[in-house]
Amino acid sequence: MHDHAKPVQSPWLTLLVVCTVSTLLALNGSTLNIALPVLVRHFDADASAGSWLLLSYMMANSATLVIFGRLGDMTGQRPIYLIGLTTFTVSSILCGFAPNIETLIVVRCIQGLSSAILLTNGATLIHGAFPPELLGKAMGYYTASFSVASLVGPTLGGFLVEAAGWQWVFWFNVPLCLLGLYWGARHLRGEPPLDGDQSLDVGGNIITMVSLLLLTFGISQATDLGWANVQVWGLALVAVLLVPVLVRIERRAKDPIFDPGVLRTNGVVGIYVGGALNAAGRFPLVTIMSLYFQIILGRSALSAGLWLLPMPIATISAAMCMGWLSSRRNARQLSTAGSALGLMGLITVTLSITTGVEWGILVGLAITGSGTGVFLGANATALLQALPEGKAGVGNAVRLMVQNGGTLVATAAVLTIITSSAAPGLRSAVLGGDPGGMDPSELLPGFQWGLIAMIVLSVGGLLVCIHNQRIMRPPHLRK
């Protein structure tokens, strides 16, 4: 059994490696959010293909997190982590050589697979390296590493596409990948493989992946076909009907993805649901506001990146306070506080774009970022404290899967809502950052309704956090 009180080496070296890699993962996403209009125009892509430049990565990532989490538990986190980082490096290089939009989407899927390996095993490596009394502080730094990339990414992405070309949105992170590989090979240790006969829940993973793909693809098709189209709601219906099949498979699986025993313990299911709803209500905001600044306010990609800075700055500031906050409040209380603060920020942003108060948008982004910084670290810490021994890898993978799945579906829905304000022939132009001859004010309702949908999701996340706050794990079971 792993002893948290006696880490194999200095835990801060492990944290340094994982934070370096998480920074490049976040840079990969935040730079592309800004560059999306440029890529849509360059490849002359339609609205659906433009959406899938973002969704393909998220889809592949979300659908394989649990598989790689289980493999990490079975083989040890270090070897699979280094394999994932190598694959991510190679796929970053290949993205820049993509000759067409279809090839780029395929390579983005490979990037998504490799990022799933890194994400699902990164927090587990930290959990295994740090003693319980330092875990909250370490998770705060881990959360901040994503936010540092979000701080630099939008501005960097805008600069790269204007000064060097879209290829460098993917190539610039290669040196950081190589640095992470060097440090990882030297300093990562990870926990040893689990003893005993462990197995992959192949049936559960397949059903989960198919359900997520059908639901996301159905929603994304509403951009071109409309919400009433049989293909849109038919695919979503099939995805929902697969849920009972998943439940039956999980009851018979030897090592299920969704272990009923774990889900019923210490409010774990509430941590998952709260994380999914809060992620769905927060993470699409960067994509929405990037398009808003370029389409409605008519700003360049670089200018849009600068306008987004208050959100990551606030996220970093809040995440860096997690050590201090964790010494005064437990992780579930902090999750509730972060959820409430993020909701206040979303409401502020929505009211500001409705009234045209531009400085209010900046304030709202800052408030949202503060809540996000507190919530992410606290939610991860609460889960790692609640999971039974030996379940950290797959348990954290499920957290990331439901969180990213919520983000994936919400992003697909929000992009559809935004483009629905335009005529069918102009929807590709909207994702390309061009109102297509329309008065930009005609597109404003789409942004407003997209934000309102996120507010509804955030309210649900807050209610779950409030309920879950009452379910506390006894201190003697946390080690």
Automatic annotation (TrEMBL):
Transmembrane parts of this sequence: 12-29, 49-68, 80-99, 138-160, 166-185, 228-247, 268-293, 305-325, 337-355, 361-384, 405-426, 446-466
Gene3D superfamilies the record matches: MFS general substrate transporter like domains, Multidrug resistance protein D
Record keywords, A-Z: Membrane, Transmembrane, Transmembrane helix, Transport
Record bears the keyword Membrane: yes
UniProt keyword Nuclease, yes or no: no
Membrane topology recorded in Swiss-Prot or TrEMBL: Multi-pass membrane protein
Record-linked InterPro entries: MFS (IPR011701), MFS_dom (IPR020846), MFS_trans_sf (IPR036259)
Pfam families (alphabetical): MFS_1 (PF07690)
Start and end residues of each Major facilitator superfamily (MFS) profile domain: 14-472
Subcellular location: Cell membrane
SUPFAM superfamilies (UniProt xref): MFS general substrate transporter
Protein name: MFS transporter
